[in-house]
Specification:
The structure is a single chain. The protein has helices at 34-56, 61-78, 85-88, 100-119, 127-137, 173-188, 196-210, 217-231, 243-248, 250-263, 266-302, 309-321, 327-334, 338-350, 369-373; strands at residues 9-13, 18-22, 324-325, 355-356, 366-367. By secondary structure, the protein is mainly alpha-helical. It has a three-stranded antiparallel β-sheet. The chain has a two-stranded antiparallel sheet with strand order 1-2. Strand 1 (9-13) and strand 2 (18-22) form a beta hairpin. The chain has two domains: 3-286, Orthogonal Bundle (Fic-like fold); 288-373, Winged helix-like DNA-binding domain superfamily/Winged helix DNA-binding domain (Arc Repressor Mutant, subunit A, Orthogonal Bundle), CATH 1.10.10. Helix 1 (34-56) packs parallel to helix 11 (266-302), helix 4 (100-119) packs antiparallel against helix 5 and helix 13 packs across helix 14 (338-350). The longest helix has 37 residues, at 266-302. 58% of the residues lie in helices and 4% in strands.
Length: 377
């Protein structure tokens, strides 16, 4: 089917409202728009450059966790969380009670991403995997009573106080299972010639249109993009935080999805999606380059510490994994005395590697600010 002749679906009359029943997507796709071809080539090239760092950066997994944290932060910010990125990297006991719900939502997202990427070794991207992921995303947070990990059995809606005045009403719950089955088949149908980035774009649109869960659809739908790219080997590691693009262009993101449903313009959505992949891949590539520069500079600074240099380098490795630490964290992780841990912190503060962030006289926390700033907007 050509994008230009695509019909997105139909509005079906329900009791006192209409729900949108999207067309099936498991079929061949094509387009006449040369802009898509150019964007697709550019996005794939940039994504390849980003992915290359997963192979050339030593111990890349310690840096990938910060990419996941960034994705978790921005994906949840789209849903309305208000906590600062630095705060989300702190231990729970340091979080003010009024911010703990937001903190837990971000922690859940990171746990869900890590679990799902690990599960890809034995499961394909599927309804089953997405349900498992959703259960973790919603565990113990707002929406936890809305059947986490299960496809919805009730009508939901977006915007408004109910389906009668909603901005958009997804398909009736009786359609959800079949539509998700079609989406799953589309992701793995090797008989159709659809580029993987275009397939990811269409799949994300379809998932958000189906809205298969009672809550948490936006977060899982954005996770789906990364999981699919990792499953296809396009990304070796989950290093693409596309939520950053969606959050900064929130109105355009929502409008592009709605434009498919109301005007059948799936080409516009695919162009928007590819532009996002292109921009964020370049940003991620530049972040990895900056990490390498920072890593070399910080390690050279540690060499100036004489006998404490080996211990300082070990502490530096800890900081890449845990950007916000206490003296006790360093003491336990490195197996050193309290005096040694505090001496390392003093050295790092002098070298402007660490910054005290709590302003307290006890139970102080320190942030690896130069590393954190590489991921800030």
């Amino acid at each position: 089917m050509k994008f230009e002749s695509f019909s997105a679906g139909e509005w079906k009359k329900q009791y006192q409202y209409k729900s949108f029943s999207p067309a099936l997507i498991n079929h061949e796709w094509g387009w006449d728009d040369p802009r898509i071809n150019v964007l697709l080539e550019q996005a794939m090239r940039a994504l390849g450059e980003l992915n290359a760092f997963s192979f050339i950066v030593p111990n890349v997994d310690i840096f990938i966790q910060m990419h996941i944290a960034k994705e978790a932060h921005t994906s949840n910010r789209i849903e309305g969380t208000k906590t600062a990125f630095e705060t989300e990297l702190m231990p729970e006991e340091a979080i003010p009670p009024e911010n703990r719900d937001d903190w837990h939502e971000v922690q859940n997202y990171m746990a869900a991403m890590n679990m799902a990427v690990q599960e890809l070794q034995r499961l394909p991207v599927s309804t089953r995997l997405l349900c498992q992921t959703h259960a973790i995303v919603m565990q113990g947070v707002r929406g936890q009573h809305k059947t986490p990990g299960e496809l919805r059995r009730a009508q939901n809606w977006i915007g408004g106080s109910g389906p009668m005045d909603a901005a958009f009403v997804p398909p009736h719950p009786d359609e959800v299972s079949g539509l998700m089955g079609d989406l799953e088949k589309f992701l793995h149908n090797e008989e159709i010639m659809v580029p993987d980035l275009v397939r990811a774009a269409i799949a994300h649109y379809q998932f958000e249109t189906i809205h298969p869960f009672n809550d948490g659809n936006g977060r899982v739908g954005r996770l789906l993009i990364t999981l699919y790219l990792v499953s296809k080997g396009i990304l070796q590691k989950p290093s693409l935080y596309l939520s950053d693009f969606f959050e900064r262009n929130r109105s355009s993101y929502i409008d592009a999805l709605m434009r498919v449903r109301t005007a059948n313009d799936i080409g516009h959505w695919v162009r928007f999606f590819l532009a996002g992949v292109l921009e964020i891949s370049k940003k991620g590539r530049d972040t990895f380059k900056a990490i390498q520069v920072l890593r070399e500079e910080a390690e050279n600074q540690c060499l100036s510490l004489g006998r404490r240099a080996p211990m300082a380098k070990r502490a530096l490795t800890l900081l890449y994994r845990r950007v916000v630490v206490s003296a006790k964290d360093i003491e336990i992780e490195l197996g050193v005395t309290s005096a040694t841990a505090n001496a390392i912190i003093r050295d790092f503060i002098k070298m402007q590697i660490l910054r005290e962030t709590t302003g307290k006289s006890r139970r102080r926390l320190y942030v690896f600010d130069r590393y954190l700033q590489l991921f800030m907007d």
